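Chapter summary example: a protein plus adenosine-5'-diphosphate.
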Amino acid sequence: MGSIVLDKVQKKFGETEVIPPLDLEINDGEFVVFVGPSGCGKSTLLRMIAGLEDLTSGAVAIDGADVTETSPAKRGLSMVFQSYALYPHMTVRKNIAFPMRMAGIDQATQDAKIDAAAKSLNLTDYLDRKPGQLSGGQRQRVAIGRAIVREPSAFLFDEPLSNLDAALRVGMRLEIMELHKKLNTTMIYVTHDQVEAMTMADKIVVLQAGVIEQVGSPLELYHRPRNKFVAGFIGSPK
Ligand code: ADP
Ligand code: MG
């Protein structure tokens, strides 16, 4: 599960059309990167999928069901932001448990899921610490852990690594890719970083001013950029 279909989704803020009607299909299990310059509408599009922004027009379907009017909590998606949004007064364990507690999941199941998530994210030794006692990378792993335990049908990442220093970013990229391989769950990953897009994606969606310039694999975009913008943006020779 985890296919997402956008049907002529449009977003206006007041009179300003930030996303002209666009279509996009994301297949179950795909790692899709939305890439484009700052302000091109990546976050807005992601938030529309998550249900955090109303559509001006159009429809969103997840696994074949229209969710356009469905609340964010009921869409079965987990979002990871660039700001970690952890609860500073709670331990790592409690932070990860939070969405399960809200959902009324029993303690034994919570503990099993926390242990599994902590193991895949190398957080086992940090479960009793508070966010203030963690590095930036570890905090971001906790945020991902909290997303994992909800067992979403898709993960939505909005520039999750942009607060980390360059060396740490490389490692975290690999960790997220490994997680994708392990969980086999759809991931949509927003970034303005071309390298991130080219190294992580199964499918890249290149956006400019709310318009999809091209959709394709990293190799397709590299060898057959559709226009100068795509060529220039991903740095291919055209
Ligand atoms: P990106 O994530 O690619 O940097 P955004 O989706 O954040 O871009 O923003 C796209 C455009 O929409 C920008 O011009 C931004 O100023 C505008 N925008 C985003 N959110 C709002 C809002 N709540 N109200 C008005 N304009 C907004
Ligand atoms: Mg953004």
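Key point: Residues 4 and 62 are 5 Å apart (CA to CA).
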